[in-house]
Amino acid sequence: MKKIVQFLAVIAVAGALAGCARTAIVQNIDAPVSAGHTQSQVRAAILKAGQQRQWVMNDAGPGVITGRLDNRGHVAEIRITYAADSYSINYANSLNLKASDGRIHKKYNTWVNTLDKQIQQNLASGAAL
After folding, report:
1. pTM of the entire predicted model
2. pLDDT confidence bin for 3, thresholds 50/70/90
């Protein structure tokens, strides 16, 4: 009987830890842009990457774009600031992503990293030029 109780305790602890593994620290991205790009080219690369990755992007002023991704009721909102030599992707808000105390569902970080890679590809390939 004692072994069954110990086994159930181990399962309970493992289940609790597995639940925690769904969240991660919110990841903000600061990325340099290689020389030779203008601010408008960086803007175009960001907007195109958003479109390619199903983000809804909107201009929010000079050097600022907001993005929103709605994936089956899980919503992520970001704020992207950009210049000719760099851009930053920062968490703004979310819905149904377990955001709390600087942590968020790990899928958010996947979405933001994928967007960042797409922006870098667009800049490297000259797609925004």
Report:
1. 0.82
2. low
- Across the chain, mean pLDDT equals 89
* pLDDT exceeds 90 at position 10: no
pLDDT in tens, 30-51: 999 998 999 999 999 999 999 9
Instruction: Using alpha carbons, select from 71, 79, 80, 82 the residue that is nearest to residue 108.
Output: 71
- Listed by start position, the domains of the chain span 24-125
* C-alpha distance from residue 115 to each of 3, 34, 37, 52 (Å): 49, 18, 19, 9
Q: Which CATH class is domain 24-125?
A: alpha beta
Name the strands in the sheet holding 56-59, side by side, starting at the edge strand that comes first in the sequence. Answer: 29-32, 86-95, 74-82, 64-71, 56-59
Amino acid 24 reads A
